[in-house]
Amino acid sequence: MRRAYFVTGTDTGVGKTFITAGLAGHYATQGHSVGVMKPIETGHEGPGWPEDALKLHHAAQNDDEQDMVVPYIFQPPVSPWAATKMSGRVIDFSAIIQKATDIMARHQITFIEGAGGLAVPIDETLTMADIPRQLQIPLIIVSRSGLGTINHTVLTVEYAKSRGVDVAGIVMNQHSQELMKRDPSCWHNPAIIEKMTNVPIIGVVPTVSALREGPELWTSVGEKIRLG
Ligand SMILES: Nc1ncnc2c1ncn2[C@@H]1O[C@H](COP(=O)(O)OP(=O)(O)O)[C@@H](O)[C@H]1O
Ligand SMILES: [Mg+2]
Fold first, then answer.
1. Quick check: 180 pLDDT over 70?
2. From the CA of 9, which ligand is nearest?
3. What is the CATH number of the domain that holds 103?
4. What residues are annotated to the active site?
5. I want to staple 185 with a disulfide (CB 3.0 to 4.6 A). Which of 135, 147, 174, 227 is the partner?
6. What integer is the mean pLDDT of 146-160?
7. 228 found inside a domain
8. Distances, alpha carbon 114 to alpha carbons 110, 119, 155, 169, 177, in Å
């Protein structure tokens, strides 16, 4: 059966690309056909692949074209809606949905990384949540381990529900021994978040500093996440 997930985060910089690449690389290394997509990437100067899309493409180990993997690229490091206002370009939402549908049909499992968090606007009426809603695919929410994450994670789950999007699970990222010593909130955060949201924590991923990007890193991340 073909599967697909939309990976969002409680904020920008929480580790969406890191986790998405880990999952994609882990499945690809196991011999699955893996699709990836970053429908809109902002903050990219110059020609060629933007950073997030390239990391995902590298991890997925397929030969999908750049225009399929990352249909919209903008130079200013701002939300997609702001980027369209600054550039005068428009985003054709139906083209994103068509390309995502094609990628999902090509591969056994597909991971689509959003830009920023779930309420980030694409235009006056659409937000990131409308991509998984239209595709009818569930979310993986990447959140921080430490203090502040309960509020951010619960709000993200509530927003998903309000837009009619299912949440497959939450991945708590950047856990560490050092964090456990200086931030006792992280001992209790997973259980409290599960209780408050009724969404399973499907992985707790530590800060990995020793490994370079590649199969060893992807496997070490992918192995810590249980996808249904
Ligand atoms: N578990 C982790 N261990 C080590 N570095 C991480 C981990 N998670 C994220 N990072 C690093 O933190 C930075 C932000 O992560 P990134 O995946 O780019 O966030 P996002 O895609 O949500 O903006 C990157 O430099 C990334 O390599
Ligand atoms: Mg990213």
1. yes
2. 1
3. 3.40.50.300
4. 38
5. 147
6. 97
7. no
8. 13, 10, 17, 16, 29
Indicate if ligand 1 lies below 6 Å from the C-beta of 224: no
Using one digit for the tens of pLDDT, what is the confidence trace for 193-221? Answer: 999 999 999 999 999 988 889 999 999 99
Q: Which domain holds residue 218?
A: 3-222
- For residue 144, tell me if it sits in a domain: yes
189-to-74, 101, 170, 214, 225 alpha-carbon distances in Å: 36, 35, 12, 30, 17
Q: What is the pLDDT of residues 38-63, one digit of tens each?
A: 999 999 998 999 999 999 999 999 99
Q: For residue 227, is it within any domain? A: no
Mutate to test the pocket of ligand 1, among 10, 18, 211 (most ligand atoms within 8 A of CB): 18
pLDDT score, position 1: 62
Question: Is the shortest distance between the CB of 20 and ligand 1 below 6 Å?
Answer: no
